[in-house]
Amino acid sequence: MASRFLKTACCADMDGLLPAEVRSGWQAVLSLHVTWLVWTGLTKGLGVMLPALQKDFESSTWLVGWTIAIINGITDFAGPLAGPLEVLLGTRLVVMVSGVLIGGSLIASSLATSVTQLALSLTLLSGCGIGFANILTRAMVGRFFTTHYTLANGIGHAGHSVALIVFAPLTQLFLDTYGWRGAMLLLGAICTHLVPCGALLKKGLTTPNHESRQRDYTLLADDPSTEDSEERTVRGNKCCLPELRGVCCTWAFGLEVFRKTSFYVTAVLYMSNRLVNDLWVIYFVDHVYAKGLSGQDAVTFTAAAGVSNLIFKIGHGPLVDRGWVSLRAMLAVTTAVAAVCLFTDPWLDSYWTVMANAVCFMGASGTIGALLDVYTKDLLGADNLVSAFSWMGVLSGVVTISFGFLPGWIYDVSDSYNGAFILMGCIWCVSLLAMATEVVMTRLGWITQQSVGKG
């Protein structure tokens, strides 16, 4: 039944495309799925290893936690380079090299003897690799899918959910069996699976200027005055200048999003979502320890939360695509639910209440993460996705690096994460305020939606 629905969605969405282009669309979804799997797996794996790293390096909780947060911050800072690299090298090569960088950084970090060495290895290599691959695959899915974009995007983002389910117990197994250095080596090998995913991508179908270049060729061919006298000049310019011109245009259009009011609304939502999710993934296991529960309990909670995240991340797609629930209503409700889960967390200490809270939170959080890409496309349009994702990532990186240490510092000071989780709930309230502002500004005509549809 599920495969039949996916096949129908694919055919309905890509009726005008060749079979090779249809395959490329779903290969892009697969690459996005694996990119999220690698990113969340890396972050969650380091979160599980946080107590071991803290003990081995004889460091404080906030410093090791901040190091993991900085990795995500550098990932965001690398975003603006993704567009120019895509034009120069193609998405296929960029994603393949990104897989090598991520896997190599984890293997190299297994040799680290200090927190500084660990941070340098992971931030400089993994951060850039994840940033490039994530932005380019997300934008590619946005270009290929229109009517069923919410479903395709949800499947791609489900890699985050699968990582929560798989990587927490897997990393704990590696840690117990081989120590944190052996766990790093094995995680690095797993992350290199992004390389073959990049190899599946078709270079000619993934460049952002593909459609515009096709229109340029058509216009020149239909113009009889240029076909004879200027044919050689045009061909020479087409051969020599498109990459350079594409790079310049990419940089120019990348900065153009700052002139759009709607960009700042989506940026607030994106920054809030990224910060809260990063902090939860990094500190949740240690938070469970602080409540007096075991490491095995923490792994079980994370796996259960991952299952919930996966179900909601895929399940919300048909609801929004078919118009049963509006995009903004779904986004507002799930954000409110996530905030309530964080506010009530300090009063939940038993096994089942902590598990229920984690399941509820990650279910709502998974829906939010997938919907934000749809929300961004709705406000800014498909042509601005690479630029929007890149610069929202940069802003998120600033926030993550600035506040990534805060939960660990609160724990070191108060011997509890309760204040940190309440603070994270307040951040979600900022998102609700931003969504309310967008509704008002749309009614006043200050913001115009770029795409019209059920999604």
Automatic annotation (TrEMBL):
Q: Which Pfam families match?
A: MFS_1
**InterPro entries linked:** MFS, MFS_dom, MFS_trans_sf, Proton-linked_MCT
- List the GO molecular function terms: monocarboxylic acid transmembrane transporter activity
What kind of membrane protein is this, topologically? Multi-pass membrane protein
Localization of this protein:
Membrane
Q: Does the keyword Iron-sulfur apply?
A: no
Q: What is its main location?
A: membrane
Give UniProt keywords alphabetically: Membrane, Transmembrane, Transmembrane helix
Task: List the SUPFAM superfamilies hit by this protein, alphabetically.
Answer: MFS general substrate transporter
Q: What is this protein called?
A: Monocarboxylate transporter 13-like isoform X1
Residue stretches making up the Major facilitator superfamily (MFS) profile domain: 28-443
GO CC annotation, single: membrane
Q: Does the keyword Membrane apply?
A: yes
- Please give the start and end residues of each transmembrane region: 24-42, 62-81, 93-112, 118-137, 149-170, 182-201, 329-348, 354-376, 388-411, 417-436
Superkingdom of the source?
Answer: Eukaryota
